[in-house]
TrEMBL record, chains A, B:
PROSITE patterns xrefs: ABC_TM1
Protein name: ABC transporter permease
Taxon lineage: Bacteria, Pseudomonadati, Atribacterota, Candidatus Phoenicimicrobiia, Candidatus Pheonicimicrobiales
Gene Ontology biological process terms in this record: transmembrane transport
Sequence intervals crossing the membrane: 22-51, 63-85, 91-119, 201-221
Location in or out of the cell: Cell membrane
UniProt source species: Candidatus Sediminicultor quintus
Primary location class: membrane
Family: Belongs to the binding-protein-dependent transport system permease family.
From TrEMBL, chains C, D:
Name of protein: ABC transporter ATP-binding protein
PROSITE patterns found in the cross-reference section: ABC_TRANSPORTER_1, ABC_TRANSPORTER_2, MOP
Family matches, as Pfam families: ABC_tran, TOBE
Species assigned in the record: Candidatus Sediminicultor quintus
Keywords attached to this entry: ATP-binding, Molybdenum, Nucleotide-binding, Transport
Phylogenetic placement of the source organism: Bacteria, Pseudomonadati, Atribacterota, Candidatus Phoenicimicrobiia, Candidatus Pheonicimicrobiales
Amino acid sequence: MDFIIEGIQKAFQLIFSLDREIFSIVLLSLRVSLTAIVLSSLLGIPLGFLITIKKFFGKKLTIILMNTLLAFPTVVVGLMVYSLISRRGPLGVFGLLFTPTAMVIGQFILAIPIIIALTHSAIQGIDKRVEKTALTLGATKLQSAWAILKEARYAILEAITTAFGRVIAEVGAAMMLGGNIKGSTRIMTTAIALETSKGEFGFGIALGIILLFIALVINIFHHYFQSRRV
Amino acid sequence: MDFIIEGIQKAFQLIFSLDREIFSIVLLSLRVSLTAIVLSSLLGIPLGFLITIKKFFGKKLTIILMNTLLAFPTVVVGLMVYSLISRRGPLGVFGLLFTPTAMVIGQFILAIPIIIALTHSAIQGIDKRVEKTALTLGATKLQSAWAILKEARYAILEAITTAFGRVIAEVGAAMMLGGNIKGSTRIMTTAIALETSKGEFGFGIALGIILLFIALVINIFHHYFQSRRV
Amino acid sequence: MLKVKNLKKKYNNKTVLDIDYLGFQESKIYAIVGPNGSGKTTLLNILNLLVKPDKGQIFFRDQEIINNSNSKILEIRRKMTLVDQDPFLFQSTVYSNVAYGLKVRSLSSIVQQNRIKNALEMVGLPGFENRKVDQLSGGEAQRVVIARALVIEPEILFLDEPTASIDQKNIAKVEKIIAKIRRELRTTVIFTTHDLSQAYRLADEVISLLDGKMIKQVQENLLWGEIVKEEDGLKRFKTIGNVKFAIVSEKIGPAYVSIDPTDIILSYEPFQSSARNSFLGKIVKIIEQNNLVKLEIDIGIPLVVIITRESFQDMNFNLGSKVYLTFKASAVKLY
Amino acid sequence: MLKVKNLKKKYNNKTVLDIDYLGFQESKIYAIVGPNGSGKTTLLNILNLLVKPDKGQIFFRDQEIINNSNSKILEIRRKMTLVDQDPFLFQSTVYSNVAYGLKVRSLSSIVQQNRIKNALEMVGLPGFENRKVDQLSGGEAQRVVIARALVIEPEILFLDEPTASIDQKNIAKVEKIIAKIRRELRTTVIFTTHDLSQAYRLADEVISLLDGKMIKQVQENLLWGEIVKEEDGLKRFKTIGNVKFAIVSEKIGPAYVSIDPTDIILSYEPFQSSARNSFLGKIVKIIEQNNLVKLEIDIGIPLVVIITRESFQDMNFNLGSKVYLTFKASAVKLY
Amino acid sequence: YAEPIHLKLATTTSTENSGLLNILLPPFEDLFNIKVDVIAVGTGAAIKLGENGDVDIILTHDPDAEDKFVQNGKGVNRRDVMYNDFIVLGPSNDPAKIKGMKNVVSAFTNITNQQAFFVSRGDASGTDQKEKSLWQMANIKPGKEFYLEIGQGMGVALQTASEKQAYVLCDRGTFLAFKDKIELEVLCEGDSLLANPYSIIAVNPALYSQVKYMEAMQLIAWVTSIEGQKIIREYKKEGEILFHPVAIK
Ligand SMILES: Nc1ncnc2c1ncn2[C@@H]1O[C@H](COP(=O)(O)OP(=O)(O)OP(=O)(O)O)[C@@H](O)[C@H]1O
Ligand SMILES: Nc1ncnc2c1ncn2[C@@H]1O[C@H](COP(=O)(O)OP(=O)(O)OP(=O)(O)O)[C@@H](O)[C@H]1O
Ligand SMILES: [Mg+2]
Ligand SMILES: [Mg+2]
């Protein structure tokens, strides 16, 4: 209990002290996770759409696999990417390990099954008449896809929010691939893990609260933006 | 790269050796995560339903908060629950720390915002006429709720799958609250973390593959069950 | 058995329903007619206790309902059912759709099966039990929805445009069903329609709605046009084809008017009278209706006139007969 | 400008459409009639290139389409549009629904605004631009969908039961629109309806479908019943009210038959002839139709008979006249 | 058999990872019918768990923090159990030329002077505290761009150092476990400053009544017993001795 109270106090202190280190950690967290989310949405939403709309061999299997990948542990994602980009790995020459780019790759892999699976279920639920109506009115394939996505926008935005929550909160891949290097790849969650292992539980909670606060601000923006567009 | 190959080999070895320890770790993972998912579904689906259907003060805020909680880092959930159930915490007398129950609590807290938020967006997308039709045909409030949930079943099952993926793959809360005690609270992900910290990357990947394999089996069952019911 | 008093319903500050009193009796058939947006669907929704009116009371067998407990409302709602204008089918089979109302009432599955079989036969869809609902044609879907309502055997059945996309053979079937359940189960049927002849053919009473208000008369001869002030200083109602009626009115501008078909007098010669409206027309349609004869007379626009069988025979009217129509300015009712 | 050859479409191994040849010419109006499930909607979907037939060819201005490239199909589909039987409105405002077809064609927003304003006025919904679509009454929604199709100014307009839930005043409006766009824009209009009088009133040609096949004749006097073998060894068609017709048929069992209203001869006295069907009936409805007169005669069931104006006058028929109907067994056509 | 009593031991990840506990504890468990639940966390977290009474006993290697733990009355009966040694690892080309140096403080000075990369755990663990104290002795304040604080465990630190071809301070046990996976070699060892002492401390039963003090004392007795110390002395990994017992001379 006292850690929570301590955590809340510390969180306020940190926020109001405008600590430069905290600030840059927060910024990096956001940069990495938002990049990963933008990229995985750009790829995942069209894929989720195609999986739902198209008939193809192995469709059911693909959907099951996507749902399975929702259970991909972050550490394992971290390990797998690590073994590709480490000095001894096939992509070692690019020197990606322990850079924000590596973290983006890890989070991208974590986010994409979520985006695909939830986009699939979002579009699954859309009235079959949307596509027909759009075609009837002269829409191209692309325009009718857009019409369907627009009808599903609420659930798709929820998919993005869910994926964002997952990656901004994940620690395993970022730790493994970024290395939690102070001043260069330390992000909110790896900082929390560090403080926790030091026994600084209150400080960990404080950082967690700041993270949630940031998520809150983003969600408020997103909600505002969403309700304006409809 | 070599870790991945090593991991795949080790995964097969482990599966076919029917290692008793691995077996009990897998079983505990499943027990904890499935319990957490059942409980959070039982609470979260009705809550998600009510949030969507009812008009109440602060509705928008509630939805934004749920979306924010999707970004709850597992370590922070672990820390917060820890400070409640630690000996010194208000619930210390129950001696829950380092038990599977504690892990269930942690995962429950992680799962519930996902279930609520995705149930909300699932029901949001359901034709408004479902409720009217059910009422018209003499359904009680509860029966009409059931009719709505049934129309949204696909997306709600996806919500459960997503939440299941999240908790079976999470490590922070389980580590903090279970303690990764060999033979009593060690689950797949904490074992993976342990092996990774030992530098046994291949073994970590092997366990990760087994975890994904289990998720696959569950998803196949779930898919089969779902397509039979429709 | 069902009545409403002082009913008011607004949407976006626009009154869409405003009814002082309306009562329905057991085992009678009521038709509600009126143009698009006149409040028919809204009225049915309120009567079926699905939408709360902003003001007013609803009585079921003299018991006030709206402010009752939820369980009481449910109990009463279970005695009625509504077939929607744009009906929704649960994404499943025809069978489980039709079974729904029985399932929520926990009826035994044997009863369910029998009733469902009967109902599907009644609407002309025997053997459709296992059809997926997205494989139905428009008219088939509409009839499934009617079957789904029939199996409940409600005391009051609301039907919102039940035959809008049903073919003629099946319209006859549905109409027979309505007559049959009234006769055999003493069901009160309240339906809306845009087919006035259907309304008169089936219903014991026809209720006309216009802009949310009940209007006394039939909507035959309901005309849309403009009230203008002519050079002679008198007000006239001008409608399509430049046909003009003398009218008694305070206001000018666009308006609905109606002329009661029984208020119009027919004659072979024009006759000098106080009635200010007199037109020459030609009979283009003759329909027998019980002891009355309904004539459609073309005076530039078609006007319906109802006269008795006797006068029809006495006057020796026939198709193509040229006749004078005479009616008072006050017979042109303004809304 | 549009024609189909050897069209076949099956659903679940049941042939729902089977048409040898069907052609549509520019600037003409076609009505497609037929009972529920006869394949009307399926035909429109195929003509609008939304559903692929299992077999057959479609030609647009003598160019085969189906096996064309996607972009070609799109180009041709953009010259037509379909108003669905159970139309879907995008969850948004009336304006953005009506604008959709213009937006996908990237028309300038000034053109959009003008056309939308005009179209909404045409369907009698001026000022509805900013209304949310879930706040429309049934008939209003149907008219929004018609407006959405009109703004595109298609060369071919398909309308699937466009007036099913529209009130009489607005039906007249929609019918006028159809006539107007044909006249002014040379649009080909192909619509389905269950209202035969509407079909004849509007269309240059009426196409009858039954069980997916085109049938030659009108669907007045289309009857459902059973062919039975009587004790005298002859086959008769038995329908409601135990009315029986002599019929020429190989098969027995349930069937549709039709009797061409012009194949029936009327007389005051029964006359001995080779025609094997003779019934006494009473005239219950008289409707003038151009130079013909359509009579409805009750012989237990209502039968429609069409005669010329002259013979109507010569015979001095009138409402209530008792007349004999005579027609040959071969006039009872079997499907 | 009666249900064994569960004793909760919080220890550092390195102890657990070395594999020693898997040899040391089973004979004790059999002998006393006590099951030891090992909770392996960071040193700081292990001490915190002890402070909160969530474990019964701790086994750590951070003398300063341990002193404070005992001074604050949270822990009682601290016993030194064993020590192992730290070593300085680095890339084989050894840019700072410290290979074979005995004096670790001057080795550290060389590393800074050469502006070679150095990976620090930066997680306030025992190893981290030791490293900090060495910098202090060398009178150097690291924290430039060549000094990477990663805030993670020893294994990752080795991995990182290998990737960056940097120097790193490491305990011998972890190095042996990672030897094959990294491209680093031992460059500096043997300084008495590099000793890494482990202590075992029971949680004060006066503060938390439910703490299993008796069993904790039994465990302390076991690891400091002749048999216990023998097991420690004889535990080898990759043919090398890892820990040197100190409880019994
Ligand atoms: N949810 C709503 N919000 C706002 N206005 C509404 C809503 N529902 C209906 N209306 C308006 O209320 C009026 C009455 O609608 P109602 O559906 O009762 O008409 P109706 O008589 O059934 O018409 P139709 O013949 O077209 O079905 C219409 O003007 C309609 O636009
Ligand atoms: N997707 C489908 N799968 C299987 N059968 C279908 C499907 N769509 C239509 N049918 C069947 O095909 C037949 C023709 O349907 P269609 O919708 O073309 O009829 P329709 O003439 O438009 O009828 P209505 O007047 O009821 O609208 C019907 O028997 C219908 O049940
Ligand atoms: Mg309506
Ligand atoms: Mg149809």
